[in-house]
Amino acid sequence: MLLCTAAAQRGSAFCRVLGSAEQQSWLDSGLELAWSAAAGEEVADECAELLDALDALDVLDAGDDEGEAYEGHGGYDDDPTARPGFYADQAVGLVGEALAMSIRPSAERVETVLKTLRTLLSMVDFKLGGEKPVIVRGGEPRPAPGPLVQREEDAEREVLAAPAVAEAQESAQAFVAEVTPSVEEFAEASHWD
User: Fold this and answer.
1) Contact residues for 18 (Cβ-Cβ < 8 A; gap 6+)
2) pTM of the predicted model, to two decimals?
3) How many domains does the chain have?
């Protein structure tokens, strides 16, 4: 539960920079509940209610016309990752997974959350690193991950070493403050500002 919640907190930078006011409000409520659950509080019913509200939020956001201006221009129809809402949706989804952990714990869910967050951060690393593809041939070592992914891996170890939930939460919040400028730069480089 703690790994999942901390990862969701770390991923919140994407929603804070790229998300709608409704998404950010839901995210704040979700993170508060997820941290309560991680601390051992009995909040499963509240988590279920907030997950139901997420379904309503998804319906609300599904009707947006954010992609229409970009159709046919290498925009949203061609690649869902080419829209800022994709990243905000993924961040909200990380919090949803953390809430779902309080209802049905699952190692697979934790793995999914960690992989999703690393993928989002690797996309930022790629964009900010000049979008230079790297080809790895069979038998060659994989290149080192980008700086944000490396920082994420360090943050995961920090959570595992944290003596209490409060320290894990502080570490995750510090991570958000640290990576938010990179997410803002990513948004600017993607012309989403």
Assistant:
1) 84, 85, 87, 88, 183, 187, 192
2) 0.88
3) 1
